[in-house]
């Protein structure tokens, strides 16, 4: 270990052992099978450690594995070596030096050529006229830390030289996140120029859409030929659908469709069924105008106004960002900013709020050694690893240090500049959490509320053993639906993670001022005079809370008492109160002309919030329940054949419908059964099945069918439902036990993962509650006739109920006309004072604009 200390004790690892020229080839011979040349599709990480935010700019540089092409900082490369046995790494280091000054104070000409071959961002705090950069690359062989300087064409084997050149010249694995490349990757549809549009009088309203075939109200696509609104499939969008848009194309041959809800002044999501890929439509505004959607007007509003016309919106930006106020920068643990990757502020704001919550800090950063030690072989593709990395980056203070005092600059800058990294880039985290999601994987602005729910879903799916920090947000909503004709009621419960408050515009307390402002504004526009100072509607929070609790009409309500559709009203109450209450103000809507509109309002959000009066009370004396009868299932003609043969192969279950139902809070196995027994006819039909069968004792039991002899899915057993007669290979068991795990644990993990080594390691880490039970394992090994290990009956949704009294500790604000444009920032109360997080800038807040927020985070006050 002395050699390791020598290497790591000096910047750039210059203390490593250097080889004589004749020994290099001999030294590399045993490692040649592990050195690979990057192939097309390989992700080569040269800019960022998989476990930290170290880079070649960091003091210890970066180590790139020459087999997996993962990168590791100085503190983490040994872990990868111990876990994989991979010995050869390329060490990358960028040196930053102050230029030598002449007698007159100017920089002297360089006495040697700088080598800059790494594609890195330069430090914004450094003036390029004052500093020079030099990149260094060398091979390091573990465990003895031998160093081979690069380039070294004469002594290195040809394969090694080719591999090194390929690594150094490889492109960034985050190419799709770069602002200049994302949009250009979409091809222009060959049908866009001469698209036929039927003159059938169809006009699309700005809201209230539903699929023309199945009444689904999300993931809807507008066919640009005939104006049909139909649902998509799972591969269009993660929210799922029944595929009626695709079926319509097969029936009619109309090639292009646009996704409703994505239309902005900058474009929309367009899909070509014929070309089978997302495309660009250069004439999209014209094609949408055919159906009454006025994108041209939206463009004029967004880009064509004069400076004096946009003053009200500029004012909003100034107020929320506290412009004009000298803000004091904050440094240290918990005061680290996140660099903007180009419209990534929605993610940054949410993650700052999330990691200000102790439960998330403990679950990830508190378990950092265990999570990192048992991370999968590719930690860049593991949610828990990347969450822990981000949390540590934000909370450690390692990447948020105050600038060096002026009197120390001369001493520090004598030979080599050691830049202080302020703020971290969430590029790897964003790439993982957004992959396969069509919106978050783009470079466009997104809705912070939608990302919050997406993140909660990922936390739920990747829970660490029995620990699930998102439990703090989960609560139960009691929905009471009353048939207006019979007065009978039905009570149901559902899971939710945030409270959505409507904006009660009619309750504005300054209506006279608003009317006067509107008249003055119109007069100024007509006469081309400067607009008056903006007057915002002042809405009492109590009015918004009242609007939330009022009954609302239920569209297409089917009364089981009347056995027919009828008028119905619904009221919602809290069946439980969460530990942390997230409140969203519903500020965004569409006008009749399809122009996105934002309620630019001021709401007096309270620091202390009491919603105990919204506690659900259940069935009341004198109330009569609606009969427990399900509405008749209307089977589309194209699905009757499928219904006649309901026993589909379990591998064909529509997982998109399963996940839609699971996200409502129903047990996963119940969702799989519902989709299976309704013949893959979609989430809505499966939901009806759930309502009918949810009281049955085996409701949440694993799916079993005649002819399949047991569980229908890998999720049906806590151990993966793998046959027990499949004895794990002894050599794989030996590999796991050599890492320090028990033999019984290794056998159990391999059986649970069909003898997959990497998945077995993940299984062991995700089951920390495992206890050695020799009798149990002996019974497993000796009982060749056993089929599966039964899963304990799942419990209902876990909630942390308590008092409904809360205190505000964070809020996220939005600036701009739409959630798909503009900017997000976050304010968090820390150590008794408010702090503003505006991308990488973190400052003490002087005037936190609590009345202009979009999402508010409250924590429960202990009773």
UniProtKB/TrEMBL annotation:
Q: Where does Zn(2+) bind?
A: 211, 214, 231, 244
One cellular component term (GO) for this entry is: cytoplasm
Q: Which SMART domains match?
A: UBA (SM00165), ZnF_UBP (SM00290)
Record domain UBA: where: 652-693, 727-767
The principal location of this protein is: cytoplasm
- Keyword Cytoplasm appears in the UniProt entry: yes
Q: Which UniProt keywords apply?
A: Autophagy, Cytoplasm, Hydrolase, Isopeptide bond, Metal-binding, Phosphoprotein, Protease, Repeat, Thiol protease, Ubl conjugation, Ubl conjugation pathway, Zinc, Zinc-finger
GO molecular function terms here? BAT3 complex binding; cysteine-type deubiquitinase activity; cysteine-type endopeptidase activity; K48-linked deubiquitinase activity; proteasome binding; protein-folding chaperone binding; ubiquitin binding; ubiquitin protein ligase binding
Listed under subunit, the entry gives: Interacts with UFD1. Interacts (via UBA domains) with SIAH2 (when ubiquitinated). Interacts with BAG6; the interaction is direct and may mediate UBL4A deubiquitination. Interacts (via UBA 2 domain) with AMFR; the interaction is direct. Interacts with UBL4A; may be indirect via BAG6. Interacts with NEDD4.
The protein's role, per its UniProt record: Deubiquitinating enzyme that removes conjugated ubiquitin from specific proteins to regulate different cellular processes.
Name this protein carries in UniProt = Ubiquitin carboxyl-terminal hydrolase
Organism encoding this protein: Papio anubis (Olive baboon)
């Amino acid at each position: 270990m002395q050699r390791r200390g020598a290497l790591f004790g000096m910047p750039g690892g210059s203390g490593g052992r250097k080889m004589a020229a004749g020994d290099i080839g001999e030294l590399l011979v045993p490692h040649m099978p592990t050195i690979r040349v990057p192939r097309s599709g390989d992700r080569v990480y040269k800019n960022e450690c998989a476990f930290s935010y170290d880079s070649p700019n960091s003091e210890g540089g970066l180590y790139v594995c020459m087999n997996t092409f993962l990168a590791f900082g100085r503190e983490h490369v040994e872990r990868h070596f111990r876990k994989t046995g991979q010995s050869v790494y390329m060490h990358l280091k960028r040196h930053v030096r102050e230029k030598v000054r002449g007698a007159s104070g100017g920089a002297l000409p360089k006495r040697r050529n700088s080598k800059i071959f790494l594609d890195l961002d330069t430090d914004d705090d450094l003036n390029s006229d004052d500093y020079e950069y030099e990149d260094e690359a060398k091979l390091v062989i573990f465990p003895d830390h031998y160093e081979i300087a690069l380039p070294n064409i004469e002594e290195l084997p040809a394969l090694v030289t080719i591999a090194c050149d390929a690594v150094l010249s490889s492109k960034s694995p985050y190419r799709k996140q770069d602002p200049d490349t994302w949009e250009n990757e979409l091809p222009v549809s060959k049908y866009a120029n001469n698209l036929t549009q039927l003159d059938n009088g169809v006009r699309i309203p700005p809201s209230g859409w539903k699929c023309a075939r199945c009444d689904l109200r999300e993931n809807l696509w507008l066919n640009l030929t005939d104006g049909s609104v139909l649902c998509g499939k799972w591969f269009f969008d993660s929210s799922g659908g029944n595929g009626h848009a695709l079926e319509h194309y097969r029936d009619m041959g109309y090639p292009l469709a646009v996704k409703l809800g994505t239309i902005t002044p900058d474009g929309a999501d367009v899909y070509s069924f014929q070309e089978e890929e997302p495309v660009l439509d250069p004439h999209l505004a014209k094609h949408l105008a055919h159906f009454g959607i006025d994108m041209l007007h939206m463009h004029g509003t967004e880009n064509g106004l004069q400076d004096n016309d946009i003053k009200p919106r500029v004012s909003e930006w100034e107020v929320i960002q506290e412009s004009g106020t000298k803000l004091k920068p904050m440094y240290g643990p918990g005061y680290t900013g996140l660099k903007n990757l180009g419209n990534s502020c929605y993610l940054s704001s949410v993650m700052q709020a999330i990691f200000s919550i102790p439960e998330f800090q403990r679950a990830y950063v508190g378990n950092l050694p265990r999570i990192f030690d048992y991370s999968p072989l590719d930690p860049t593709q593991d949610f828990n690893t990347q969450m822990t990395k981000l949390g540590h980056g934000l909370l450690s203070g390692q990447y948020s240090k105050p600038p060096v005092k002026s009197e120390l600059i001369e001493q520090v800058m004598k030979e080599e500049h050691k830049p202080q990294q302020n703020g971290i880039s969430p590029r790897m985290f964003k790439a993982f959490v957004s992959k396969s999601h069509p919106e978050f994987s783009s470079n466009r602005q997104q809705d912070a509320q939608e990302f919050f729910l997406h993140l909660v879903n990922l936390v739920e799916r990747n829970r660490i053993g029995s620990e699930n920090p998102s439990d703090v947000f989960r609560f139960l909503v009691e929905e009471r639906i009353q048939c207006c004709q019979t007065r009978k009621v039905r009570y149901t419960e559902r899971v939710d993670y945030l409270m959505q408050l409507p904006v009660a515009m009619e309750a504005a307390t300054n209506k006279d001022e608003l009317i006067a402002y509107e008249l003055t504004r119109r007069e100024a526009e007509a006469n081309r005079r400067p607009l008056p100072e903006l007057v915002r509607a002042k809405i009492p929070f109590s009015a918004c809370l009242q609007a939330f609790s009022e009954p609302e009409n239920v569209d297409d309500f089917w009364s089981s008492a009347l056995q027919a559709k009828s008028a119905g009203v619904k009221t919602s109450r809290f069946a439980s109160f969460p530990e942390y209450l997230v409140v969203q103000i519903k500020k965004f809507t569409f006008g009749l002309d399809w122009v996105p509109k934002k309620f630019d309002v001021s709401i007096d959000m309270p620091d202390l919030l009491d919603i105990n009066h919204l506690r659900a009370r259940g069935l009341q004396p004198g109330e009569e329940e609606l009969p427990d009868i399900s509405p008749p299932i209307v089977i589309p003609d194209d699905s009757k054949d499928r219904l006649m043969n309901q026993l589909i192969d379990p591998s064909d279950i529509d997982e998109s419908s399963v996940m839609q139902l699971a996200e409502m809070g129903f047990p996963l196995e119940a969702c799989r059964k519902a989709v299976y027994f309704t013949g893959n006819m979609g989430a809505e039909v499966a939901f009806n099945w759930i309502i009918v069968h949810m009281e049955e004792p085996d409701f949440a039991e694993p799916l079993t069918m005649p002819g399949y002899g047991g569980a229908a899915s890998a999720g049906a057993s806590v151990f993966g439902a793998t046959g027990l007669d499949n004895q794990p290979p002894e050599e794989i068991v030996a590999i796991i036990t050599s890492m320090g795990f028990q033999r019984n644990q290794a056998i159990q993990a391999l059986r649970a993962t069909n003898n997959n080594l990497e998945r077995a390691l993940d299984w062991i880490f995700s089951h920390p509650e495992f206890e050695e039970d020799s009798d149990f394992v002996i019974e497993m090994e000796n009982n060749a006739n056993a089929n599966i290990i039964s899963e304990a009956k799942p419990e209902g949704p876990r909630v942390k109920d308590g008092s409904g009294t809360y205190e505000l500790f964070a809020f996220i604000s939005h600036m701009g006309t739409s959630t798909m444009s503009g900017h997000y920032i976050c304010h968090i109360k820390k150590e008794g004072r408010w702090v503003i997080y505006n991308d990488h800038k973190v400052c003490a807040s002087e005037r936190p604009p609590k009345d202009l927020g979009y999402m508010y985070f409250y924590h429960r006050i202990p009773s």
